[in-house]
Write a structure and sequence with these properties.
This protein folds into two domains: 7-81, RNA polymerase sigma factor, region 2, helix turn helix motif (Rna Polymerase Sigma Factor, Chain: A), CATH 1.10.1740.10; 92-182, Winged helix-like DNA-binding domain superfamily/Winged helix DNA-binding domain (Arc Repressor Mutant, subunit A). The radius of gyration is 18 Å and the shape is elongated. The protein contains ten helices and no strands. By secondary structure, it is mainly alpha-helical. Helix 7 (114-123) packs across helix 10 (153-182) and helix 8 packs across helix 10 (153-182).
Length: 183
């Protein structure tokens, strides 16, 4: 797209291309921060950045472009807030996915309540949480997730697999705790 010197034209183009993805931007920020107020701040900052640099947008997928900005805004924010939160320590016991797609465990995850899934997603390390959210909630392709996270496709697939495995284990732990509390 050509750079526009007319501010009204820039605003109209931005509204047409970026604003339809505002909910997705907020949702990603909300899940990443686990906090409504911080998510609003990050989404707002991301939208301001997106508008400020809208002249650099070249007509790719506007959702991918905007979610990349949201993610980068979050990463900048988290570095200032909590320097170590963005790293996840690898634990072989937690990250090994020994279940296959059609096991009782995968059926268990499918039947998990919305609240159980929400709580489990909030507990995921951010590198797993972001790819799970983009794939499962935003229905993004692996290629789109790779573009947003600036990661190789294999890394995206690996994080999704490990993230799903950790998610299953977290939900199973919640259910065990709930069962103990009801006995």
């Amino acid at each position: 797209m050509q750079s526009s010197t007319d501010p009204a034209e820039k605003i109209a183009r931005f509204e047409a291309l970026a604003l339809p993805h505002l909910d997705a931007a907020y949702n990603l920020a909300r899940w990443m921060t686990r906090n409504t107020t911080d998510a609003e701040d990050i989404a707002q900052e991301a939208m301001l950045r997106a508008f400020r640099f809208f002249d650099t947008f070249r007509g790719e997928d506007a959702r991918v472009w905007l979610l990349t900005i949201v993610r980068n805004t979050y990463l900048t924010w988290i570095r200032r807030q909590i320097p170590q939160q963005n790293s996840a320590e690898f634990d072989e016991r937690l990250h090994t996915d020994i279940e296959t797609a059609l096991t009782p465990e995968s059926e268990f995850l499918r039947r998990a309540t919305t609240e159980q899934v929400r709580r489990a997603i909030e507990q995921l390390p951010s590198e797993f949480r972001e790819v799970i959210l983009m794939r499962e909630l935003e229905q993004m392709s692996y290629k789109e997730i790779a573009a947003v996270t600036q990661s190789p496709l294999g890394t995206v697939m690996s994080r999704l697999s490990r993230g799903r495995s950790v998610l299953r284990q977290l939900i199973a732990g919640q259910r065990r705790t709930e069962a103990k509390n009801h006995v």
